[in-house]
Amino acid sequence: MIQRRKTRVVNVGGVLIGGNNPISVQTMTKTHTEDIDATVQQIKELETVGCHIVRVAVPTIVTAKCLGAIKKQVRIPLVADIHFGHHLALEAIAQGVDKIRINPGNMKDKKKLEEIVLAAKDKGIPIRIGVNSGSVRSEGDEDEELTTLMVKTVLKYCDHFESLGFKDVVLSLKASDVPSTLDAYRSIAIQCDYPLHLGVTAAGPPSLATIKSAIGIGGLLSEGIGDTLRVSYTGASELEVKAGYDILEALGLHKRHEAELISCPTCGRCEIDLVDIVEKVRQRLPGDKKHLQIAIMGCVVNGPGEAREVDIGIAGGKGFGFLFKKGEKVRKIPEDRMVDELLEEIARMA
Question: Where does [4Fe-4S] cluster bind (predicted)?
């Protein structure tokens, strides 16, 4: 059982981050935000795959002035991603966004920062202080260790915000490499009680980013660190959301939104065409059998044990397999009937 780190709770447009609240899955749109129709359409697509919070880029004042129109057409909380221009943050707040993200590496004017904080405080809008490894260094700190610098920078901003009576803060400390990401989050986790937004930034294309995120985000979550997350892909936002859920599900932090197939990697002991059987079952699984665990195993080494531990499973032999349901061996099935009989049994299950 994972023991979650204790944090304060921050309300982002009705989604509660921190405390004992479920870990939320976020992403960012890939559209030009000023294209209101395209941005709304993408957000609605993200809503259908279970995205909890969505962030949009705000590079210009024209973009910032579009945020109110976008927010009116979507259901999930809208976050404005602000870099450099404090006036963009002020306009986003006036447009009624649900959260502001600022990057300390790109916003260093103390008085302008205070304007943002006081405006957000007046409207009850939380702020994410999101530091990235690629933008945190400035003149004079080139020799400082990266994760130490990230943590020190974030805590400096937190102290400033607190001095203004502003406490609705979420933190992120993202690096593009996993070890730095892990070090930064582990360090900040023991120095404050702010909720943490997890992610590995600029993680690359899906094949590489999935591995980096599973290790980085998943590793922290397994230690009880993290309250919301975003998987970063050079690719579709919908894939980021699905990957986020996969990480949560692998750790038992979210109930599966589809049936879970458990199957072995095959080896010289396997005497059925396991790859073909698994693929055929996967393609034909009924959509209403959510949360079922289904094991399809190739031999007697782990097969019977795995098949007994799940809702329904098959343990393969030489050209046949034994069917198990809820821990009980039911019957022997020839290989050419495995797919059909397994699916028939799954269809009967409530």
Answer: 264, 267, 299, 306
